[in-house]
Automatic annotation (TrEMBL):
Gene Ontology CC: plasma membrane
Protein name: Metal ion transporter, metal ion (Mn2+/Fe2+) transporter (Nramp) family
Top-level taxon of origin: Bacteria
Source organism per UniProt: Acidaminococcus intestini (strain RyC-MR95)
TM segment ranges: 29-49, 55-74, 95-113, 125-147, 159-179, 199-221, 242-267, 287-308, 329-349, 355-379, 391-413
Membrane topology type: Multi-pass membrane protein
Molecular-function GO terms, alphabetical: cadmium ion transmembrane transporter activity; manganese ion transmembrane transporter activity
Compartment annotation: Membrane
Listed NCBIfam families: Nramp_1 (NF037982)
Signal peptide: none
GO terms under biological process: iron ion transmembrane transport
Length: 418
């Protein structure tokens, strides 16, 4: 039965060596660069500053949801031979695919708002200029680079250096501050509770770090990577999903912990980029502002490039249009999204940090919608026909859907009632 469905016996597929896995993985690492944007940095900083160690337990459902979403999407893609939204169209019709594509597009569009604000906040910390002026400068550079040839890889390498600098700075701060207090740290991981006023922060944090859009878009990146069905069984997709989730947690976990150590005892609340830079002052002193500025700028710029394309590709997939990154429709729709984002960001009168938080809270609209259809696909007998039913993954996907939907409804209803 396995051979009839796959064309080979999965039991005979050898597990790849560590070196071979490093060559085959890739989409998960790219998605980490998209996820760890200014929204992730901001929500993580807010969580540590506002609640100390109390919300560290959120990384447990984030890990479970993140790996479940990635592996479920990868499995469906490999068994059907179709990326997720194309599979939704095949099994549930054009209307369902269009609805999911539009929801995920708007989810990514809100991310774009946060990325534009984050780039401006980074320029403000580095050069002291108005954040709107800084954002315009970066948008101009982005558009020039967007239509250039053979330049994206160069930009990506420079951005990666900025993000690596941020990681080093936060872990250096952890070491310099003596590290987390063991008792409160483990209490924060083991005691699952929502302190008063934490629901919206928790929703924004989860929707940023465990977004279904990562798994869905990963199925389109997998096609670019030329993954084959054998990669479902030789460890490639599992390693790719684990690499994505672990790197996200390592980066964001350090930010939350530093916020808990440095900002929370002082009673500081994150309302401006300079307050996030304060987390690095124990190690960097007067260099804290430019280093945090580089971190925000690098994270925003890389996420702005990748996330905008992600949203447009998912929209086009839902509408059954071209999803090629080089197509004119994708490129010019990306430009339109960026220009629209500039208008929205500049019309907002509050702090760019607050806009980043609100934008990432709004991304939660896409998660329950897409997760619903991915869950349905996971339970379809015709997709799993001839295969051992992945009960653990099916149950985990169902639980994640219930959790994501419940926290979204509860948090938003709580906000509306107030």
């Amino acid at each position: 039965m396995y051979i009839d469905k796959l064309g080979f016996d999965p039991d005979t597929v050898p597990t790849l060596s560590f070196g071979e896995l490093l060559k085959r993985i890739g989409p998960g690492i790219i998605l980490t660069g998209v996820v760890i944007g200014p929204g992730a940095i901001t929500t993580a900083s807010m969580l540590g500053a506002n609640y100390g160690y109390q919300m560290l337990w959120l990384f447990i459902p984030i890990f479970i949801m993140g790996i479940t979403f990635m592996l479920s999407c990868y499995r469906i893609c490999m068994l059907t031979g179709m990326p997720i939204i194309h599979a939704i169209r095949h099994y549930y019709g054009k209307g369902a695919a269009a609805f999911v594509g539009i929801c995920l597009f708007f989810s990514c569009l809100f991310f774009t708002f946060g990325n534009i604000s984050g780039s401006g906040a980074g320029m403000n910390l580095i050069f002291g200029i108005n954040w709107k002026v800084g954002a315009l400068i970066m948008i101009a550079i982005l558009l020039l680079m967007y239509f250039s040839k053979n330049t994206y890889s160069k930009v990506e390498k420079g951005v990666l250096l900025c993000i690596m600098g941020m990681i080093i700075a936060f872990y250096a701060t952890l070491i310099a501050s003596g590290g987390p207090a063991a008792g409160p740290f483990f209490t924060g991981i083991t005691h699952w509770q929502f302190p008063q006023g934490s629901l919206l922060h928790s929703l924004a944090f989860i929707s940023t770090h465990a977004a279904i859009t990562a798994g869905v878009y990963g199925t389109y990146l997998g096609a670019e990577k030329k993954w084959k069905k054998e990669d479902l069984f030789n460890g490639t997709m599992f390693a790719d999903g684990i690499a994505h989730v672990i790197t996200v947690i390592l980066i964001s976990g350090a930010i939350v912990t530093v916020g808990a150590i440095v900002l929370h005892p002082a009673g500081l609340k994150i309302k401006a980029p300079a307050q996030m830079a304060a987390m690095l002052k124990p190690v960097l002193g007067t260099f804290a502002n430019p280093v945090m500025g580089l971190a925000l700028l690098g994270a925003a710029f890389s996420s702005l490039l990748g996330n905008t394309q992600r949203g447009v590709v998912l929209l086009n997939a839902g509408m059954d249009w071209s999803v090629g990154l080089e197509s004119k429709r994708v490129r010019w729709t990306c430009v339109a999204c960026i220009l629209f984002g500039v208008i929205v960001c500049f019309a907002y009168s509050g702090s760019p940090t607050q806009l980043i938080f609100l934008a990432n809270l709004a991304t939660s609209i896409g998660t329950p919608t897409a997760v619903f259809f991915v869950t349905l696909l996971m339970w379809r007998k015709d997709i799993n026909a001839g295969m051992r039913a992945p009960r653990l993954l099916q149950v985990s996907m169902t639980v994640c859907y219930i959790f994501a939907t419940a926290i979204t409804i509860f948090a938003l209803a709580n906000k509306l009632l107030k």
